[in-house]
Amino acid sequence: MPAYSHILFATDFSQESESAAQRAADLAQRCTARLSLIHVVEFSPLDYGGEQMLPIEMDLEQELADEARKRLERLGERMGAAKSDQHVEIGSTKNEILRVAAATGVDLIVVGSHGRRGLALLLGSTANAVLHSAPCDVLAVRVKGP
Ligand code: AMP
Predict the structure, then answer these.
(1) What is the Cα–Cα distance from 140 to 119, expressed in whole angstroms?
(2) Count of domains forming the chain
(3) Which CATH number goes with the domain that contains 46?
(4) pTM summary value
(5) Other C-beta atoms within 10 Å of 51: how many?
(6) Which one of 8, 45, 59, 88 counts the least CB within 10 Å of its CB?
(7) If you measure from the C-alpha of residue 10 to the centroid of ligand 1, how many angstroms do you get, rounded to a whole number?
(8) Which of 8, 126, 139, 142 to mutate to test the pocket of ligand 1 (most atoms within 8 A of CB)?
């Protein structure tokens, strides 16, 4: 197995992604790799008709991002990811994961095979989308059904 130097773990904070978190932290330790974390806040009323965002919607988006930063900080402490390597982004999950991976020279992206949206597909939509366009290796950690 190649020794990775920079691993990016994408989290939706779900219980299901816990096994992927453990695998990412374990791999980073074994490879003595830098570990980065990302969570993407997908809330964006602009997606729905291109209307100008209302101030209340912008507040809500910021609140979601602030809350995500706190959760990511707790996860970062647990997994051993430096604060400067914790990314909370707003937008499309797939695009933001790929953008941050390219911008920070990641050589492995770790995702759960499925997240909050369930086990109906062979691969969850995020894992699938990331796998198709990633500039580096992708590890989709199997999430088991109930
Ligand atoms: P899904 O495509 O929703 O089944 O999710 C599969 C995996 O993609 C999750 O276990 C996470 O690793 C990642 N993922 C899903 N949503 C997000 C998100 N909003 N931010 C970061 N990673 C995510």
Answers:
(1) 13
(2) 1
(3) 3.40.50.620
(4) 0.90
(5) 10
(6) 59
(7) 6
(8) 126
